[in-house]
Amino acid sequence: MLLEVVAFVLALGVLILVHEYGHFSVARACGVKVLRFSLGFGRVIWRRQRTADSTEFTLSALPLGGYVRMLDEREGPVPADQRDQAFNLKPLRQRAAIVAAGPVANFLLAIVLFASLAWMGQQEPLALLGSPKPGGLAERAGMRAGDRVMAIALDGRSWRDIASAAELQWPVIEAITEQSVLSLQLADANGHGRREVRLDMAELGTREPDLAAMTRLGLGGPLREPVIGEVAPGGPAEQAGLQAGDRVLEVDGRMVTDAAQLIAGIRAHAQTPAAQAQQWRIERRGQVLSLEVTPAVVVEGESRIGRIQALVGSAPQTVRVRHALDDALLIGLRKTWEQSWMTLKTFGRMLIGQASLKNLSGPITIADAAGQAARVGLYQYLSLLAMLSVGLGVLNLLPLPMLDGGHLMYYLFEGLSGRPVSEWWLERLQRAGFFLMLLMMALALSNDVTRKLGLH
């Protein structure tokens, strides 16, 4: 729990700091006097001000946002000798630039993080896939265990080379939400014998890339060889004579191609009326042996599954994925654009009812994700930070009062009409925006709670 809190507060602090610094730096560049730069809202718990006339930097008690307070006639009297530093008296283009700078700073942070991660690189599972789920879309399309994904295309023409299994995730999500056709170029483990398959995501019947959709898609995970790992003392595996390092060749006369297939066969054994022994053929140090293995029946919830009480499957093959600096920058730009566009489309679909409002996440879900990413490592934590920065940038550009996007809409009206939005309209729009923000926060928090309770 402590790790989740620390990881969440750190991530939130970085995102808010970058966002507000965007407003602050452009305001200063435009000659606007900044009165206060605050991380958090509410009671001030720390402050620093170099001189009485300089910017006051503060840390406040509620770390769920921040603000940059500028000299402005609408918020108080402005001395005559400082009127040229007042925000509201600056040209329209400068006011718009100051407001837009916050979300832009978040996008720039995402680009830098994505690019840095691509440049640093890391070991990732090779895009060598295990057995597809029986009856799933992938199996019906002709995919099989041992297929290596060499390239993908969302339109069937613009192919993108694939180096690791992780690079498949985002195109799959995008194809599901668009209900488009995802084309894959497949080969064997050595990259030979290329062929093409097409996955028509419209057959899934949903635009939600959730667990149910992924199950119907049935795409295999990274290939793991059917090798036995650690064997629990006294369990069915030990009783049958299995040892760590044994490679399973056949079960009941059926050839075993990967660990996923073997695990599925063990689990499904509990569905048979009587717990009969399975006939296994294994390879041990160059010798082929025959063993009888009777999986134990375990009840999980309302399901009966088979277990042999041993680790099944070797670690997947990995490859170090690292890009040159110029390529890494392009990857950072591409990922930031793709995720920004996807986030914006998701908001639009929720608005017209094509996507579930359950997609909204609040602080509890984000804290859980931050804690899990921090446990895995710095690479995953920075990846999450980049994605959150994209989300914050898109959210702030939504044309809702109280958000940066709402203020930009005011300026668009002013630019087109030649006059600012009236105080009467501003007051009512701000009230409506405040209500909408409360509604979104309440819905996001409700989604968090139902996820935590397992009700989603």
TrEMBL record:
Record-linked SMART domains: PDZ
Classification via InterPro entries: PDZ, PDZ_6, PDZ_sf, Pept_M50_Zn, Peptidase_M50
CDD domains: cpPDZ_EcRseP-like (cd23081), S2P-M50_PDZ_RseP-like (cd06163)
Topology term for the membrane: Multi-pass membrane protein
Domain of life: Bacteria
Keyword Iron-sulfur: no
Domain called PDZ: residue spans: 196-258
Family, as annotated: Belongs to the peptidase M50B family.
Alphabetized NCBIfam families for the sequence: RIP metalloprotease RseP
Stated name of the protein: Zinc metalloprotease
